[in-house]
Amino acid sequence: MPRRGRLLILGLPYFGRMLADSLGGEGWDARYAPHPGRSPAGWLQLAPQVARAGVIYVIGGQLGKGSPHDLVMRIRRKPVVMHWVGTDVQRALQAHDRGDISARLAENAIHWCDAPWLVDELRSIGVRSEHVPLPIPGLAGPPPPLPERFRVLLYLPAEAPYRRVFDVETLLRLPGEFPGIEFIEVPSPPDAIPGPLPPNLKALAWVEDMDALYREVAVYIRATLHDGMSFMAVEALARGRHVIWSYPLPGAIHASGFDAVAAALRDLAARHAAGTLELNTEGRSYVLEHFDPERLTHELDQRLAALVSGQSS
Questions:
Q1: Following DSSP, what letter does each residue of 146-179 receive, concatenated?
Q2: How close are the terminal C-alpha atoms of the chain, in Å?
């Protein structure tokens, strides 16, 4: 396969490494590097790769005046792509309120968003972007049967900057409201959960084998105040699990706030007790059609190739 060109991927490690691997399979000389942040030494070390790259692809947007991205855009004439994924958009909105937006970054970088509502949010501060889903690996396997015991998976980050966009109150109230249901929480360890853990809540740290964990649960609950496209929601739906999420996604239950989330969970638990809760075939069908990783990787490849072609023409 002919080489597409050099692609330097910066930003969130999980996404960056995954994309470097998948785009490498499309013919790119794709390399992931941890983002240097505001470290001058880190950017100096990265400078040769920045200079050689046909495209710099940043997972996670940044629009701040005087930021390293702003300085790179001042001297670079080749494409820089920012792929916005959630809290980065929230930070951009806050920067706009402070008057701290670089027009150079807003207008000259290429902006993609992994969820359609993020496009609308960026538009509200004058940034044009497109909805470009990120490929999510490992969706096509056969869905495991729902477990005999009704278990619920919760997601609550351990780090304070990420936890701020989660509805922590709702997540932590659910085990007490449903003492007969077993809850599994990731990735916060027990000492990161306030107060004594109720007996029906198991708090795990980082889990390597998420596929095994999805087999143990019937429901995944994601209660957020702000979000991008949730990989875990898509993964759970692909496995036929039932998903309750604060954002709308076909095949998932859209619910925000404790009362709505508790009502949705109560209905699912009642159906399980009655023996009528089945695999979520609607959600599985939707994500297999709209989040096919091979198709999305190919589309991403075509977009990046068009940027390189447009630069050289």
A1: PPSS-EEEEEE-SSHHHHTTB-HHHHHHHHHH-T
A2: 22
Is the full-model pTM beyond 0.85? yes
Which pair of structure tokens corresponds to residue 208?
């390597």
Whole-number Cα distances in Å, 169 to 166, 223, 249, 259: 9, 9, 23, 11
Q: Note if the bond before 137 is cis, omega within 30 degrees.
A: no
User: Whose CA is closest to 133, among 310, 307, 297, 309?
Assistant: 297
CATH number of 151-290: 3.40.50.2000
Would 5-135+292-312 and 151-290 be classified into the same CATH topology? yes
Tell me the HSE value of 212 on the side-chain side, using a 13 A CA sphere: 3
Give the model confidence (pLDDT) of 240-258 as tens digits.
999 999 999 999 999 999 9
pLDDT in tens, 23-71: 999 999 999 999 888 888 888 899 999 999 999 999 999 999 988 888 8
Cβ within 8 Å of residue 71, ≥6 positions away = none
* CATH code of the region 5-135+292-312: 3.40.50.2000
Q: For the chain, what are the domain ranges?
A: 5-135+292-312, 151-290
Q: Is the dihedral of CA 265, 202, 240, 297 positive or negative?
A: positive
Dihedral angle computed from the Cα positions of residues 144, 215, 206 and 152, in that order, rounded to the nearest 10 degrees: 130
